Amino acid sequence: MFLRLLLAFVAFGVLTSTLVGIIVLRRTSTEGTAASVADILTIVVLAAALAAGPAWLFARSFVRPFREIRSGAERVARGEYSQPIHGGSWRESRELANSFNQMSQRLAEQIDRLEAERQHLRAILGGMAEGVIAIGTGQRVLFANESAGRILECDAVTAVGRPLYEVSRQPAVQALLERARKTGQPQREGIELQTPAVRHLMVYVAPLREADSTGAVLVLDDTSELRRLERLRQDFVANVSHELKTPLAVVKACAETLLDGAAEDPQARGPFLQQIADQSDRLHALILDLLSLARLESGEEAMDFHEVSVREVATQCVDRHRLRAEVKRMTLESLPSDDLTVWADEDALAQILDNLVDNAVKYTQAGGTVHVRWTAGPKGGCLSVEDNGPGIPEPDLPRIFERFYRVDRARSRELGGTGLGLSIVKHLVQAMGGSVHATSEIGKGTTFTVCLSRPSE
Question: What is the DSSP letter of 454?
């Protein structure tokens, strides 16, 4: 632009000076044509020399503001909005520069606001438990949060820009996405992922139609835990119904027998009445355990924490169960002579030991041994109830603290167990901030260990 202006200004100056010179020569010159041509050439050269300087200065001052505006536009294109432009000495160029500066400032504010909203949106989507994936043209991933990467077992960062079928090869997800694309309607369906561990997902696909492409937003909700809890609830209801139905059936059968005439026979009615009493006790124990477990799981069980003497609680527990052990000719004793104090609720600790010792005495064969031990550690105290009974198979150990789970269902019901004792133990220990675990060996016995914190010094 500068060169064109310079040439134009020079040409204008030369043309004007030449015309003026020719007119002057014609009026004053009396010589021939050759002399006039020579004079004209001289005038052209002088005019060009005289016009070049002013033309250069004029073109430079005229072009400089536009060069500055162009440089400013290039800086804005690179994302640099802080350096304003001045526009030079021309009023029009200054007004253009001011308008450009205002536009640049508004553009910078708009981009900052959009960037802040984008970061907020990414933060919100990134913190969601549900997986969120934005799909663009060609099923390419535009965005994927960390939950989506965890659910589909892929890297959410490297997934951006790649087709979804390359990121996660899940035919069910692909089929749902294709159905939403064809129908143009949101789709919602529960699917099952056949990964190393079977997982259940609720997938929602919302198509986003644009002018020249079709995108979609996928929301993946992992419902595996909900399914597991639902199964536990169903199992719990079924188990409670079964546990209540069995003793009630016995009580009803005995009552009907007595009503049919057995009540008149002193020798016949005794066993039936005993059965009613035993099954009533079983129902009472089951209801008490259910209420206790419900209070523990709801957090309504109030704990009174203070320093508790383990030796005192263990001695009282052994004394309560000694008669049952003697009937089976078992050895039941607490071994350490020194004391140990823990920070716990005394009634809860007594209930824990009662349940563990009761199970040990109940399931250990006649003539067996049950030992209650305790040891101090650097961060707490541990109590253990050890027996030399039949033991628990290794596959059953992880599940023995579940409600109504029994290793030997027939033997447990025969011995009068409710199937809730160990579950209550686990919840009581957790409520006091401790831990419980079991070790066992078939034919050699089982050891339950409860660890609780010690009083702070």
Answer: P
